[in-house]
């Protein structure tokens, strides 16, 4: 597979649509990192439906969501958290460990990596501009190299179990 040129997306609607399409195209694995679960993206019905379809589409499907801030900030993404509660064997959420310095520039971005070969990356979630890289395993690997050690040291958030369905 030849890597495609990245496509730059402008505006929140374009980013949400691209995220849902990226997840819909995934076959087995989705890794998400975000400073917080911003409701504009993570409470969007099309994205949550795509994550649900991925999680249920294959017996070995895995969705990992890693956030920098847990606790009350998770409530804004209630549809995603409800899905996580319904499918805990397929969808996992962790929060960065307490000792992790959250002011690191690379931890201010938001990204989704599908099947280790495609990625949607937003360098600053407050600026509605993102890069979509399909068939780009090199870009995906760079993001996963950041994600993996953080995931290993991350912690479950007890807030997730307390959110009512």
Write a brief structural summary.
By secondary structure, the protein is an alpha/beta fold.
Detail the topology: elements first, then pairings.
Layout: E1 7-10, H1 12-25, E2 29-34, H2 39-42, H3 45-57, E3 62-67, H4 78-86, E4 91-95, E5 110-114, E6 118-122, E7 129-133, H5 137-153, H6 158-162
Keywords:
165 residues; Endonuclease, Chain A; alpha/beta
Detailed description of the structure:
- By secondary structure, the protein is an alpha/beta fold.
- It has a single domain, classed as 2-Layer Sandwich (Endonuclease, Chain A), CATH 3.30.870.10.
- The protein contains six helices and seven strands, in the order βαβααβαββββαα.
- The protein has helices spanning 12-25, 39-42, 45-57, 78-86, 137-153, 158-162, and strands spanning 7-10, 29-34, 62-67, 91-95, 110-114, 118-122, 129-133.
- It has a seven-stranded mixed beta sheet with strand order 1-7-6-5-2-3-4, with helices on both faces.
- α4 (78-86) links the parallel β3 and β4 (91-95).
- α1 (12-25) runs parallel beside α3.
- The radius of gyration is 15 Å and the shape is globular.
- The termini are far apart.
- The mean pLDDT is 89.
